Amino acid sequence: MELLGRWEEADSMFDAAIRSWSSLYGDGHSRIATIRVNQANLAYRRGDFDAAAAAYREGVVIWRDGGEQMLLGSGLRNLGIIERERGDFVAADSLFSEAVAVRTAIAGERSAIVSEVYSALAGLRNRQGRHAEAETYARDAQEVLAELLAPEHRFVLSSALERGLALVELDRSDEAVELLEWVYGIFDETLNEADMNRGRGALWLGTALARTGERQRARPLIEGALPILESTLGSDAPETVRARQELERLTG
C-alpha cells in the first residue's frame, strides 16, 4: 500500500499490527517500536514531519528502555534528521550527540555508522549557518566513509554534498565546483528524476557555478532543481527558497 501511495490504508495496517503485537506482548515490545518507526518513515515521505517525529520518539523510548543499542543508534540518528527538518535544531543536536555516543560504544569512533551521524550533523550545522564546522564534519565523514564503503555509496555522496554546500557558503565555490560536479553527476545517473538529492545536488552545483562566473551552466541546473525541491521538500523549505533566490540573481 505504501509503495502504491495509498497512505491511509498503509497507516491503518500499521495500527492494526501494533494492536495485535500489543495484545500479545505488551506495549514495550521491540517489534512495536519497529512498526512505529515504519509508520514514521511513511509520515516522513508524505511530508508530515510532526507525525514522523512523534512515532520515532515512541520507538526510541522502547529501544532505550530495552537496551537495544544498535536499533537505538539508528533511531536517534533518524529522529535527529526529522527534528532538523522540523526546525528544532536543539533537539536534533542532542539526538545526534547521543547517536554518536551509542554508535561509538558499538563500533568505535572510526566506523561507518559513526561517520554517518557526523554527516547528518554537518547538515544540521549548514542549516544553522555554522558552515566552517559543517565543512569539517562533512570532510572527515567523507574520508572515513570512502575508505570503509564503496566510493559512490550514498553515505559518501551525502557527506560530499554537505561539504560542497558548506564550501559555497564559505565563499570557496572554486573548491566546491569539482566536488559538486562529481556528486551531481552520480545523482543524475542513478537517482530518480524526482529524488530530493538530485535536486539538492543541482541547486548547489548551479550556485557554485554562478559564483565562479559560469552563469549559463548554472541557470538550467537551478531551474531543474526547483520543481524537485518543491515536490520533495515543500515550497517553503530553506533550499526551495534558496533556489528561487538564486534564479532571481541570475535573472537580475
Gross morphology is globular
Radius of gyration equals 19 Å
Which class of secondary structure composition applies to the elements? mainly alpha
Q: Tell me the quaternary state.
A: single chain
Q: Sketch the major β-sheet.
A: none
Number of helices: 12
Summarize the structure in short.
The protein is mainly alpha-helical. It has twelve helices and no strands. Helix 4 (69-86) packs parallel to helix 6 (112-127).
How are the SSEs ordered, and which strands pair?
Elements: H1 7-25, H2 30-45, H3 49-66, H4 69-86, H5 89-107, H6 112-127, H7 131-148, H8 154-169, H9 173-190, H10 196-211, H11 215-232, H12 238-251
Helix pairs in contact: 1-2, 2-3, 3-4, 4-5, 4-6, 5-6, 6-7, 6-8, 7-8, 8-9, 8-10, 9-10, 10-11, 10-12, 11-12
Can you give keywords for this protein?
mainly alpha, 82% helix, 252 residues
What does this structure look like?
There is one protein chain. By secondary structure, the protein is mainly α. Helix content is 82%, strand content 0%. Helix 6 (112-127) packs antiparallel against helix 7. The radius of gyration is 19 Å and the shape is globular.
